[in-house]
Amino acid sequence: MKIDKNSFTPLYLQIEQQLTEKISAGDIKPGDPIPTEAALCEIYGVSRMTARKAVDYLVRQGRVARFRGRGTFVVEPPKQQKIILPLDRHLTASEVAQENNQRIENQVLEFRRIPASESIAAELNVPAGTEVYFMIRLRLLGDEPFVYEQCWMLCERFQDITRAAMTSSKYAYIRSKGFQPSGSTKLISAELPSNEIRLALNLSRDQPVLHSHAIVTFTDGSLFEVSDVYYNQKNYGFSVHAKVKS
Q1: Strand ranges, E, within 116-208
Q2: Burial label, 205 (beta-carbon count in 10 A; 0-12, 13-18, 19+)
Q3: Which residue has the higher pLDDT, 19 or 84?
Q4: What pLDDT score was predicted for residue 46?
Q5: In a 10 Å sphere around its CB, with 0-12 CB exposed, 13-18 middle and 19+ buried, how is residue 206 labelled?
Q6: Does residue 59 sit in helix, strand or coil?
Q7: 131 within 8 A of 157, measured Cβ to Cβ
């Protein structure tokens, strides 16, 4: 096994790619150990740090797992397929669960009324200090934490909303009050999460999340919600249908 030390591809990625090819080809099967970091150093003529980065990358991809005192072993590929969210549709988490025939659980981590900050108020087009509901929810599909959600909703139209109501579908509650959400404007980015979000989504220190910052409107054009939704990127991807200009 050789690597090209003159290549623009980092050495650790070259090692990772070769190990991935062996795993994909079945040369190293689930339950088999991969070479130790010391062995990788000897095989490829690289530093211990480079070997460790290659293994770290495989761990982040879910191809191998470290076991203290035993070594690093190839694991079975996850049975869960990645859920693809269309960017040109506004799907709630409950609708995603229904489309994928999975059970969803909402854990309300925080729920309170607060005065809107200047930035949130500007996005909602209301004066700073206007009362809003601030909520943090952790969404689980099956037993897997998929989504960490923060949202700010105007209190004016939902005076009787409760924490208990938010353990089920937020948009079902809104529609039950006679309001109809029409869609949202989203900004999607990939970023490293805060420690709080990382722990909630059960991610390693250097795993990124997909972050959606959205402003949601009613059918009458009025704004009612700002949200920051952080998707566990191991389980989510985004798609968009792009039309060719005729």
Answers
A1: 131-141, 144-154, 181-191
A2: exposed
A3: 19
A4: 92
A5: exposed
A6: helix
A7: no
Q: For residue 152, how far is the Cα from the chain centroid? A: 20
Q: Can you tell me the distance from the alpha carbon of 24 to that of 224, in angstroms, rounded to the nearest whole number? A: 48
148 SS3 class? strand
Three-class secondary structure assignment of 185-238: EEEEEEECCCHHHHHHCCCCCCCCEEEEEEEEEECCCCEEEEEEEEEECCCEEE
Parallel, antiparallel, or unpaired: how do β-strands 83-86 and 236-239 relate?
A: parallel
Tokens of 140: 């689980």
Q: How far apart are CA 244 and CA 171, in angstroms?
A: 33
Residue 70 tokens read as 């035993």
pTM of the model: 0.64
Chain center to CA of 92: 15
Sign of CA dihedral 126, 132, 138, 142: negative
Nearest to 16 by CA among 55, 61, 44, 48: 55
* Spatial contact of 217 and 224, defined as CB atoms under 8 Å apart: yes
Query: Residue 201 — left, alpha, or beta (φ > 0 → left; ψ -120 to 50 → alpha)?
Result: alpha
Task: Read off the amino acid at residue 152.
Answer: W
Element (H, E) at 11: helix 11-25
User: Is pLDDT at 98 greater than 60 in this prediction?
Assistant: no
CB distance 41 to 51 below 8 Å? yes
For residue 67, list its beta bridge partners. Answer: 71
Q: What is the pLDDT of residues 167-219, one digit of tens each?
A: 888 888 888 888 888 888 888 888 989 999 999 998 877 788 889 899 999 98
